[in-house]
Write a structure and sequence with these properties.
The complex is a heterodimer of chains A (294) and B (796). Chain A is an alpha+beta fold and 294 residues long. Chain A has six helices and 15 strands. In chain A, the strands form four sheets. Chain A has a five-stranded antiparallel β-sheet. A four-stranded antiparallel β-sheet of chain A has the order 3-6-1-15, with no helix packed on it. In chain A, β10 and β11 form a beta hairpin. Chain B is an alpha+beta fold and 796 residues long. Chain B has four domains: 307 residues, no CATH class; 65 residues, Dna Ligase, domain 1 (2-Layer Sandwich), CATH 3.30.1490; 134 residues, no CATH class; 148 residues, no CATH class. Helix content of chain B is 44%, strand content 15%. In chain B, α16 runs antiparallel to α20. Classes of the chains: A alpha+beta (294), B alpha+beta (796). Chain B: InterPro entries: ATP-dep_Glu-Cys_Ligase-2 (IPR051680), CP_ATPgrasp_2 (IPR025841), DUF403 (IPR007296).
Chain lengths: 294, 796
């Protein structure tokens, strides 16, 4: 049953000393993809930018480049839009076993954005980590198919890690989050990506939103107040990419709205800026994802 | 037939290359190759002292030209003298032509591979290149996929590292496509070697290098899209190993030397900040690795890049030489596939093969490598290092160099796709003169190719690296060794050629472009540091002389001087305290950032100052001994000032340097007088101030009385004929300021000019007794304001 969402994402920064001329790259606009269609939406910048260009990045995510010529003491970016989400039921598990996966990957002769090859090696924020690989191997030892391995690892992270926004920040690396067994959606996703890649399963990062208030009768989810993140894994040629949310241990479904996909957070961070500011800065971030009543 | 030559025969007989290698000097039958004959005859006949004198001439050239390279070690980096091997490598023109054809074919192939990897990706789709390799190479930059180069080409300047196999064939050890260095050093090797053997060089029909650079320069200039558009060389800055070459090429070709911080992307145009405001940049010859070029879209941790550069490229705003991401072609694993790709794309085999390479991600190749361990070098597949640049993660001849793995077979099985096997190479040898004897040494040769309007052209010469020992494996080249010029020797006479305009034509003015703000800033601060050092040395000397006079006893005057020195961050523990050393280092650091705009003599003089100060700072001297050391530094400082004043071209850069000096001198003098012209200051303070101003004689001549406050103020502030007075500096500042660029917002004159003029006028009409302590304080504030205004206006 398709759901219509009204979405609002607002991210703002303030600087104690005005930041000089600067450029910003935003990845805040939800993208069209299977099961998700953006009906309308606009990105507002305050104060208004002097230059703007919208395009798609390598992975097909909408990218907005901005520049401000004058120094800023505060700036805010707000996306508001409406989007149709339709998540099909998860089919039967026809994914291959781990031993066949290597050959299935090698048989993909492509460097196009969806090719599993991009998601096997180290990426900007996720390096191979023997400790995480060992954890992943142990946590998934009973699983036969690649999809079952993915589900088992998600369960292990969900059960073994504490959701704790105070424990990490946006720069925390997976090794540290893993060592302390706590963090937020970004950390869980990075740890899971490192684990899957360690086992030889191509894995990537999805940034997006969760529905703010759960459907009636369902428990609230973790990670609704800010942008959310989950994991996509390539489960062989037949099954292709599947998405799973280790923070809430569930397959991504109609409650998950995608903004961008990449190898890790480094590819999809919503705001990248070259801020030339001497003083400190503050930031705020809010998300509303509300189903439209028919 | 040439007459038999006993000296030459003796020389050749004494030279014996190792078995099983090719030699550049001797044919396989042991006879001298004809192209070497003139040079060898000269070397054979020359007395050892005369030969040594020739070599010294070459070294002297390199020293005077300031050629250096930066060597990195665990603890930091140092500038090293240029290690020239004085005997050039000789190659016949016919052989060179064949080699050149192979290089052009390879360059064209690399362009097609690059265009495919950043375009349709068919090589992968059609199975000629595994997707895993491309996606694992860190230098394959995803943000650059689908960004067509403005010029229509991705590659414009390439280098190829070549070796000669035992069968005499040349082969490629590695393609250098990122931002190859060495062409400028090759030019300097040519200059130096030409001075070692001017007679042979003049007669030997050696092809000149200037034509190659001229056509490359003209090609880059041709890429400009607007009349005022600039061509720049993008450098990581003075801490880069080959910064000398970047500065040298900028001077030689007449391009701007730019760092990431000089550049801005305004909307989607690339501009350079100059003292006249921002100017468009149309072409960048990049000497910075791609991933550092834009912290916004590439390596976010880079501090060397320009935010938005990728965006400007996407908009087609300028031509990047070579395109960002070209380093992908340097990965070792690619060498395993290039031969087949060449056949697929061009229908012809590579004329110039590369080092045999097997990617261990494929079962058959992995097995081959495992079965031939003894003649393999196994290392990281996605590394861009040259095969002889061996790191710890490499196995050679079946043994690990560093990190231990249980066994090589297990390693290959577990990490095969991340490894390549490369055939252990045997290089040719070439003669080097070591301890008076001509001995064979292994060599590799870097050859350069540039894209011109008429296609690829190959530099007729090269940059040879000579191993330190006789070991003909590539390893000998790893730890230093030396470098040599490469002479391409033809049958026809060669006319001299240079890049300079023809000597008979009218003098032609070549506009250099406006001074980048960062360069102006460094020159300004170099001037200020040098002048601050001058004041510091004078005051320290005054202190130590008086310390000697007092029999090393504390006096009120000494305490007063010490108080002022404390304010300058200088201790009186020894003649040359740390704080003084830091001033020299700071000046040298500023100069180091503008090597393209600062003369070699000036650079050497500054380096000498810094070295002398460092040597002296280790001495624990006080009193007379300290004063002597300081006098020595003062003489060297005067020498440097003389160089700047008498020898440096009066460019806008020179103006900023001079403004820095004048402003600092005015500031130091005012500050000094504030405390030493105070009527409450201890007895003897006036004399210290006069001595600081180098004005003891002048004071005696001008004033019939002993120094008093009025004579001191008159001489040190208001006397405009005294080159150490404040008013003299203001006159100077006024003269210099007038020559700086005006800006649109200026009404008749700039705020800086107003500030200078107001202060200059006030002092011009002042009586000494009107210049009170409060007035001096106000004067200091005005001078500081001038510095701030200058910075805001030109230097940011």
């Amino acid at each position: 049953m398709p759901i219509l969402y009204d979405i609002r994402l607002a991210i703002s920064y303030s600087y104690s000393a005005p930041a000089g001329a600067h450029r910003t790259v935003l990845r805040m606009l939800p993208r069209d993809r299977d099961g998700q269609r953006v009906l309308r939406g606009a990105l507002r910048v305050e104060p208004a930018e002097d230059f703007r260009r919208d395009s798609l990045d390598f992975f097909g995510n909408p990218r907005t480049e901005l520049s401000h010529a004058r120094p800023l003491s505060a700036v805010s970016f707000t996306f508001e839009g409406r989007l149709l989400r339709d998540a099909p039921e998860l089919p039967l598990d026809l994914s291959c076993g781990l031993s066949e996966l290597r050959a299935e990957i090698a048989a993909v002769h492509s460097i196009a954005p969806d090719s599993p090859h991009h998601f096997t090696g180290p990426s900007p924020r996720v390096a191979p980590d023997p400790a995480i690989t060992a954890f992943a191997r142990e946590a998934t030892s009973g699983a036969r198919s690649v999809r079952a391995i993915v589900a088992a690892l998600s369960r292990a992270i969900h059960d073994g890690f504490a959701f704790d926004p105070a424990a990490t920040d946006v720069a925390t690396d997976p090794a540290q989050a893993f060592a302390q067994r706590r963090g937020v959606c970004q950390d869980f996703s990075h740890v899971m990506i490192a684990g899957l890649r360690g086992l030889g399963i191509p894995a990537g990062y999805v940034s997006g939103f969760l529905r703010t208030i759960p459907p009636e009768g369902q428990p609230p989810l973790d990670g609704v107040d800010a942008m959310h993140a989950w994991v996509r894994a390539w489960c062989g040629a037949e099954t292709g990419w599947l998405e799973i949310d280790p923070t809430n241990d569930r397959w991504a479904g109609a409650d998950h709205v995608t903004v961008a996909v990449g190898r890790d957070y480094g590819d999809v961070s919503p705001v990248k800026g070259a801020l030339r500011s001497a003083g400190g800065h503050g930031t705020s971030h809010s998300v509303d994802v509300v189903p439209v009543r028919p | 037939m040439t007459a038999p030559d006993p000296d030459l025969r003796k020389l050749v007989e004494g030279y014996s290359p190792p078995n099983g290698v090719a030699d550049e000097l001797l044919q396989p039958d042991g006879r001298l190759r004809p192209v070497w004959r003139p040079l060898m005859r000269l070397i054979a006949q020359e007395e050892p002292e005369a030969l040594a004198e020739r070599f010294r001439r070459g070294d002297q050239y390199l020293h005077d030209a300031g050629v250096y390279y930066r060597q990195y070690s665990g603890s930091g980096s140092t500038e090293r003298d240029w290690p020239l091997s004085h005997v050039p490598v000789m190659i016949g023109a016919e052989e060179w032509e064949t080699l050149g054809a192979g290089i052009v074919q390879r360059a064209e192939l690399l362009e097609r591979v690059m265009a495919d990897l950043y375009g349709p990706g068919r090589l992968v789709e059609d199975g000629h290149l595994p997707a895993e390799i491309v996606t694992r190479i860190p230098e394959w930059l995803r943000p650059m996929v689908g960004v067509p180069p403005r010029s229509g080409h991705y590659l414009h300047f390439l280098a190829f590292e070549l070796g000669r196999a035992p069968d005499g064939q040349w082969f490629v050890l590695g393609d250098r496509t990122q931002a190859p260095s060495g062409a400028g050093f090759a030019l300097e090797n040519r200059m130096a070697t030409g001075r070692v053997f001017p007679d042979v060089f003049a007669r030997a029909n050696v092809t000149r290098l200037a034509g190659f650079f001229r056509s490359f320069r003209d090609t880059l200039n041709g890429y400009r899209s607007q009349p005022g558009g600039r061509v720049g060389i993008l450098t990581p800055g003075q801490h880069n190993a080959t910064y000398y070459e970047h500065a040298y090429m900028a001077r030689y070709l007449g391009f701007m030397l730019l760092e990431g911080d000089d550049l801005r992307v305004e909307d989607d145009r690339l501009t350079v900040r100059t003292i006249r405001g921002s100017e468009p940049v149309n072409v960048l010859w990049r000497r910075l690795d791609s991933s550092y070029a834009d912290p916004l879209e590439l390596n976010g941790a880079s501090t060397l890049g320009t935010p938005g550069m990728v965006s400007a490229l996407r908009a087609g705003a300028f031509t990047m030489v070579n395109a960002l991401g070209s380093g992908v072609l340097e990965a070792r694993a690619l060498l395993a596939f290039l031969p087949r790709i060449a056949e697929e794309l061009t229908g012809a085999p590579l004329r110039l093969p590369n080092i045999a390479t097997w990617w261990c991600g494929q079962a058959a190749e992995r097995a081959y490598v495992r079965d031939n361990l003894s003649r393999m070098m196994i290392g990281p597949a996605y590394s861009t290092r040259l095969p002889f640049d061996v790191d710890d993660a490499t196995a050679l001849g079946g043994r690990f160099r560093g990190t231990a793995h249980p066994s090589i077979s297990d390693w290959l099985e577990a990490e095969g796709s991340q490894l390549v096997g490369q055939e252990a190479v045997t290089l040719s040898t070439t003669p080097a003169m070591i301890d008076g004897a001509l001995v064979p040494r292994p060599m590799v040769m870097r050859v350069f190719a540039a894209r011109t309007r008429d296609g690829w052209t190959v530099m007729p010469g090269g940059y040879a690296r000579i191993g330190r020992t006789e070991d003909p494996t590539a390893l000998a080249l790893q730890d230093g060794g030396s470098v040599a010029d490469v002479w391409i020797v033809g049958k026809d006479r060669v006319d001299p050629d240079t890049l300079a305009p023809s000597q008979t034509g009218a003098a032609r003015y070549r506009k250099q472009g406006n001074l980048p703000s960062r360069a102006a800033d460094n020159l300004f601060w170099m001037g200020r540091y040098v002048e601050r050092a001058d004041s510091a040395v004078r005051l320290l000397r005054a202190y130590h002389l008086r310390l000697q006079d007092s029999g090393l006893q504390e006096t009120p005057l000494l305490a007063h001087v010490q108080g002022h020195l404390d304010g300058m961050g200088l201790s009186t523990e020894r003649g040359v305290p740390e704080g003084l050393q830091e001033l020299f280092d700071s000046a040298q650091n500023c100069a180091g950032k503008v090597r393209d705009r600062f003369s070699t003599d000036g650079w050497n003089a500054l380096g000498d100052l810094s070295l002398s100060a460092r040597a002296l700072s280790r001495a624990e001297s006080r009193g007379d001994a300290a004063a002597r050391e300081l006098s020595m530094l003062l003489r060297k400082l005067a020498g440097f000032a003389g160089l700047v004043h008498d020898n440096m071209y009066h460019s806008s850069g020179w103006r900023f340097l001079s403004i820095g000096r004048a402003l600092e001198r005015a500031l130091q003098t005012t500050w000094l007088l504030d405390s030493f012209a105070d009527p409450e200051a201890p007895r003897g303070s006036f004399d210290v101030a006069i001595e600081m101003g180098d004005s003891v004689m002048t004071h005696r001549r001008l004033y019939p009385v002993e120094a008093n406050r009025d004579t001191l103020i008159d001489l040190m502030v208001l006397e405009r004929e005294n080159p150490r007075s404040v008013l003299y500096q203001l006159d100077r500042l006024r003269e210099l300021e007038v020559m700086l660029p005006m800006k649109a917002e200026d009404v008749r004159m700039s705020d800086l000019a107003r500030l200078i003029l107001r202060t200059q006028t006030a002092l011009s009409v002042a009586h000494p007794e009107e210049v009170t302590g409060a007035q001096l304080g106000g004067l200091r504030a005005d001078l500081s304001a001038m510095s701030d205004e200058l910075s805001a206006r030109y230097l940011q």
